Request: fold
Amino acid sequence: QVQLLESGGGSVQAGGSLRLSCQFSGRTFPSYAMGWFRQAQGKKRERVAEINSGGSTNYPDSVKGRFTISRDNANKATYLQMNSLKPEDTAVYYCAARREYDFNYWGQGTLVTVSS
Reply:
């Protein structure tokens, strides 16, 4: 059974940085693709970063160049480094895992608040 636990959220001023962490519990972590999603109040959930089992990454234009996803297979952890944060980055951030097509394991979320 896979469980995901996020940490590292908080409040920061615009232009600041935060690093989110996601601890994976379960087997065969290296075989999972990992993603970070966010959901702002009143908006749909959106994917902000993904890293596959081979280490390739993907970002939407809204965060490209500001966010960096990484993984540590030895420690079963995934990270999201967020720089140059903007007020519109304010959201609950979720870690997710998938082995095939759909992300079917989710963490409980961590709140990121960016003030102007």
